[in-house]
Amino acid sequence: MKRAQGRSDHEVLVEASSPWWRTDLGEVWEYRDLVLLLVRRDLLATYKQSLLGPLWQVIQPVLTALVFAVVFGFIGRGQVGDAPPVLFYMAGVVPWMFFANVINRTSQTLVWNAALMTKVYFPRLVAPLATTLATMVGFLLQLLVFGIMAVAYHLRGGHGGAIGPDLVLLPLLILLTALLALGVGILVAGLTARYRDLGFLVSFGVQLLMYASPVIFPLAMIPAGSRVRDWIMLNPMSGIIEGFRSALLGTPMDWSLLAYPAVMAVLILAIGIIVFQRIQRSFADVI
Length: 287
Known about the structure:
Blueprint: H1 25-30, H2 32-47, H3 55-71, H4 85-106, H5 109-112, H6 114-117, H7 126-155, H8 170-192, H9 198-210, H10 227-233, H11 236-249, H12 259-279, H13 283-286
Helix pairs in contact: 2-7, 3-4, 4-7, 4-8, 4-9, 4-11, 7-8, 8-11, 8-12, 11-12
C-alpha cells in the first residue's frame, strides 16, 4: 500500500505494491500447507459417498483402452509391435486423460472456489496448483495399474513392457505433461472467470484434440514428411505420448521430439501465469 503524494493525512490511496506482471512464486511456497489441504479436500470430495471410490480412476482408462482395442484395433494391426493392444492403447489413454482432466478441472477452479476467494486472501495460483496435484494422484494410480497389467502379461508369456533406459525418462514425461496442462488450465481459468461459456468450449475442444493425437493410432502409421504428420506434431502432446509408449512399452522413439513439447510447456505456462496474474486482480468482482 502506498500513500499518494499531495494528499492529506486523512486520505489514503490503496494500490498494488507491485506490477501485475510480477509473480511472487515464493508466496505460493509459503502457502504450501494450504495447497496440501486443498488437495486433500479435492480427493475427499471426489470419492466421498461413491461405491467404488478411487477404483473409478482405474476403471475409466482400462475400459477406454478396451474399447479402443476392439474398435480401432484393426486400424493399427501390425503397427503396434509386440505390445498387446490393450497395453498399447492404455499407454496413450492414461497420459492423455491426465492432460485433459487437469485442463478441464483447473479451468473451472476459480468458479468452484469463488466462496473461498471472496472471503480470505491467498495466492490465487494455489487453487489450480492444488487441482493439478490432486489429479496427479489419480494419474499415478493409473500408472501403477498399468504396471500390474504389464507384469501380468509378462507372467503369462506375453509382452509386458520393456524395462530399459527409456524408463528413467518417465518422471520427465510426467513433469512435461503436468506443466503443459497447468499452463493451459490457468490460462483458461483466468478467462473463464469472465466468460463462463469458454469452459464448455475448451472441454469440447480437448475431446476433439484427442483424435488428432497418437492416442488411438501409432505415429508410425503416418509417413514421415507428410503434411498430416506435421499437423499432428504441432500438438505438443503427440511427442509426449510417444515418449510414454517408449518408456512403458519399449517402442522406438526419437527423443528429439520432446524438445518442442518442452519449449511449449514452458512458454504456455509462462503466458498462463502472466494472464492469470493480470486478471486475478478483478476476480472478486466477476466470480
